Amino acid sequence: MIEVATRTIGGHNLTEEMNLLMDAIEAGEDVKGDAKAGAGKSTLLRAVEKYHVGKRGIYLCYNKSLEHEARTLFKGSNVHIYTFHSYSLSTFDSDVKSSFLRKVNIKPSLKLVLKYAGFNLDNELFDILDINKNWRVLVDICNCFIQTASLAISDIHLTEEAKKLITSKINSKQLRKMRISP
Questions:
Q1: At which of 90, 118, 135 does a domain end?
Q2: pLDDT (tens digit per residue) in 101-110
Q3: What is the C-alpha separation between 48 and 133, in angstroms, rounded?
Q4: φ, ψ (nearest 5 deg) of residue 9
Q5: What's the CA gap between 83 and 121, in Å, rounded?
Q6: Residue range 88-138, pLDDT digits in tens
Q7: Are residues 13 and 84 both part of a single domain?
Q8: What does the pLDDT read at residue 61?
Q9: For residue 14, what pLDDT is reported?
Q10: Which pLDDT score, from 0 to 100, does residue 168 have?
Q11: Which of 58, 90, 122 is a domain's end point?
């Protein structure tokens, strides 16, 4: 009877499918995968890092927050972690990359928020929430929204700063005086 080595990550045995992939990697085959959330991509790369120190892997993430999370999983330097965008950008020559970044690295400002948000400046809420002063809260909410797969902004995208602002306006009774219609 052939004894199969038990590979583990974090005290858990790898699945049969993961072990087959590990065997293929050990045999020198190039492996490329495409899997949904929770399928075990991170676990498999951690196993490659643990059992095949000389092998290298690349982990492409949907967004920046997933990239930061992935960086906490891998201890060595054999797994290179990128967002899809940063990986694509890394393939350009440095002069092309610099030119591109100059065009897209526009810093948010009140002027840009007012230009693209489509606010009705006559709306009472604009004054009550003091958007001229608190426009960065809107930018932060949008950043939270962009980092999710949500189709619309909802309460899960509200930052602590936004919640504090709304709570302070409710407590000061400014929002209570308004008749907000659906």
A1: 90
A2: 787 777 888 8
A3: 50
A4: -140, 125
A5: 37
A6: 888 888 888 888 878 777 788 888 888 887 778 888 887 888 888 989 998
A7: yes
A8: 85
A9: 92
A10: 86
A11: 90
Q: Does residue 87 register a pLDDT over 80?
A: yes
How far CA 138 is from CA of 48, 129, 134, 162, 182, in Å, comes to 42, 11, 7, 8, 21
Judge contact between 113 and 139, C-beta under 8 A. yes
Token pair of 145, please? 């929204």
Query: What range does the domain containing 14 cover?
Result: 8-90
Which residues contact residue 150 at a Cβ distance below 8 angstroms, ignoring those fewer than 6 apart?
Answer: 156, 157
Alpha-carbon distances of 71 from 6, 34, 42, 76, rounded to whole Å: 26, 19, 10, 10
The enclosing H or E element of 170 equals: helix 160-171
Residue 2 lies in a domain: no
Residue-wise pLDDT for 20-41, tens only, equals 988 898 888 888 878 888 888 8
Instruction: Report angle CA 112, 113, 115 to the nearest 5 degrees.
Output: 60
Query: What is the CB neighbour count within 10 angstroms for residue 5?
Result: 8
Q: Dig out the tokens for 25 from the structure.
A: 């990697």
The answer on 123 and 155 residing in a single domain is yes
